[in-house]
Amino acid sequence: MRRVLYLLPVLVFAGLALFFLKGLTLNPRELPSMLIDRPVPEMNLPPLPGRGADTGLASADLKGRVSLVNIYGSWCIACIQEHPYLQKIKELGVVPIHGIDWRDDPVEGAKWLKKHGDPYARVGSDPAPGRTAIDFGVTGAPETFVVDKNGIIRYKHIGPVDMRVWDKTLLPIIRELNK
Amino acid sequence: MIAEIGHFALILALAVALIQAVIPLVGASRGNATWMGLAGPASVAQMLLVGIAFAALTHAYMTSDFSVLNVAQNSHTDKPMLYKVTGVWGNHEGSLLLWITILALFGLAVTLFGANLPPGLKARALAVQAMITVGFLLFILLTSNPFERLDPPPMNGSGLNPLLQDPGLAFHPPFLYLGYVGFSMAFSFAIAALIEGKVDAAWARWVRPWTLAAWIFLTLGIALGSWWAYYELGWGGWWYWDPVENASFMPWLAGTALLHSAVVVEKRDSLKSWTILLAIVAFGLSLLGTFLVRSGVITSVHAFATDPARGVFILGLLIFAVGGSFTLYAVRAPSLKTGGLFAPVSREGALLLNNVLMATGAGTVLLGTLYPLFADALDLGKVSVGPPFFNSVFLPLMVPMVLAMAAGPLLSWKRGDLAGVLSRLSVAAVAALAVALATWLWQGGSAGPWWAAGGMALAVWLLGGTIVEWAERIRLFRAPLAESLERMGKLPRSSWGMTITHSGLALLIIGMTASSAWKLESVQTQKLGETITVAGYAFTLTQVEDINGANYLATQGTFKVTKDGQDFAILQPEKRVYRQPPRPTTEAAIVSTILGDVYAVIGDAVPEGGWVTRLYFNPLVPWMWAGCLVMVLGGLMSLSDRRHRIGAPTRARAAVQAAKA
Amino acid sequence: MIRLAVLLSVLWLAAPALAADPSEMLKDPALEKRAHTLGKELRCLVCQSESIEDSNADLAKDLRIIVREQIGKGASDEQVKKFVVDRYGDYVLLNPPFKGATLVLWLGPFGLLAVSLVAAWAFFRRRAKGQAPAGSAPLSDAEKRRLEALLKDGK
Description:
The complex is a heterotrimer of chains A (about 180), B (about 650) and C (about 160). Chain B is built from 22 helices and ten strands. Chain B has about 650 residues and is an alpha+beta fold. In chain B, the strands form two sheets. In chain B, strands 2, 3, 4, 5, 6 and 7 form a six-stranded antiparallel beta sheet that branches. Chain C is an all-alpha fold and about 160 residues long. Chain C has six helices and no strands. In chain C, α2 (about 30-40) packs across α3 (about 60-70). The interface of A and B includes residues 17, 21, 28 and 29 of A.
């Protein structure tokens, strides 16, 4: 019995060490989305200037077809890195991509799209304090949501999308949802 | 060239450390004095080599040698010389080198001051110390070489995070490391004692002063960090329960427990295996802090840029050092002979209660700090554990401890008389109740927080108990004053140390309670000439001008502060934007009075005219810093006790023998 | 991605905690105080170890505005918390709620205290038993030393 007591520290430490080992493979900063399997938040965002009258983004627009909703902003550096891949994905024609211009002056958001290309079907402007983005549980840009035919959010990707993310993660989910 | 010398010195130091880790240990088990004796010169060589490496890196910083990657990433020619030097440890690689340098310094100290130690114990302790050095040298050489070159060198460096360009934070790490690494002494001696299978009063007598020294440094280091947060973060908070703060607080709690249990080992030859365990835990928690800060396992505001490879390496080091020690402990500790007997109500019992509560406190902080990791690893979801948790769980644990702190020193060894002690404490109890009532009335009953009166009462109870104990020792008012004074002169310094340190804690509690309970603040847009009154102090914004500093631009506001129509002070807070890296900092302007700090911060200009200003009155905050200093002073007083002077007993004995001969 | 997050977090670190612009604040000081107290319990999501009140990250600012908007509209503290938790999960609560996943967290400290008190009690009980009459066996070296120590202390 006494011997067991003296073993306690090393046992407790072994447990801790296992947690640390596991901890090294986890990312404490990655936050899972609360919105998975919930309908997209109620929204009716105005279009960006110069993109046409009926190009804003409302919840109803996300029904009827599987779609991607991408959060971007003209201030976001990682978005520039992501942008060419969004163009490519648009050219594949598998899924429409909608944008939310988050915490941004709509004029700047539109200028940015002119400069870097415009992969979006619809773009809604969500200037500060970014109510819609917060309804989406957004923590940073870029983030990309997969929304199914009924307007239910099925997946969220944090950070830039590239072809690897598309092939390995997004496309299989979209195929599954299209069945 | 100099950088390469530094690098080479580290490699040589590794070789020396390997020798020091093995040969004296083998020598001690075989009783070979020559082999054991090797530890001494090795530790000297170790210090020389590591010192050369540290000097080489410092030289690179002072001369802004940007062909050294570490310097290019963390320094800049415009930086004032002071921050070029302190920039050496303002980054991961350099701070590791500082850590190793301090480790070598403590190793050298064992050799220099340990002439009277039993040779076996000394050889083994130095060998253990060298094992830690080997681990850290491998870590620095394999994953974090500060001497890596950059080709071609950039024209200038990226600069040091401006938050670190501050006297408070510049000297915070060295003190913290002196504390952390100081606990390695108790650790090495604990392991050596486990190998020998013997823990006695002599062991405790050696370990106590070193633990005390480490505790003093750690207390200072934590206080400096807290002071820095107070004036630099711009709103008068001083403790955030951030994982990195917790990482320094846990070893402090364990170290404080160790200090008290070592007293029982020394005086009463009891609680030995527990004390050994605490010595391992205190240093283990220091290593754990290093792991948490540098691996990225826990998110924190202060974390170093993290790297998984480093994380794996430190985890390995942690498993080897702490896991290995605990295993050794499980095998050897049961055979340690238990000594002196004592009843639950006794001085030893009180010290044990202190240990139980301190250990529970450290365990609580550990649990709270690591819980997000546990939950994540077990797929329970992401949770946060913030200040509200620690305040509502940790602080209540400390209440019984402070309550017992007043009574413990009055109890006699072996078997105490609790009822008697409590009756002797009735003065303190009456004072505490009176203060509680006065506080309650002063803050207007439930208009202030309910715990404020409790916090004040607790502090007065502790202060009262401490004074009663001191008064009894010198028989104040019981004996003629002359006799009391004579007794006071003869009080051992360690006894003074306890009295002073415990009083310091009382001051600290008063400051913490008041500043948390009654802080006054006013945040507004203020135009030139406009006056805002906070706590009776009228702040008039008289001037705002741009200032060109050495490596920053600042907006400096000037407040003329009056109290009751009388001029009180001129406050000049700044909002700085550093050139490289381009980051903003706030420099609060603070004038301290005995009742609290008058504290002003200037923010951005507002388009409609005026500036955002934040004006505070932080009550009794100076008491907090004074409390920390008094605690440190008490520690120093105790450290200077003749009985703690290392080797003194043996030397005295030798002198007696010499006199006889 | 991890690297990016680290980079971002380092940038946030740079920002001194000067939150809550006067322009964001509620007119009613009582409501503002409530909002401030509540905001202290909500974690800033991008800085990760500060509350939204202490951070000047953009997202923290947005959340401060939304918290104040809701409080201004008469929402209770619980409603505001639910609003944020619905979007970001329990992670935003600096004071973790008491539930299954945090059971060990909240009860652990008291468990620890109980265990250490029981251990201390067992220590005394064992020692008390050991103290029972030991017959007339001669003193061992250790016992002699102990006796010596006791006598010395008695002086």
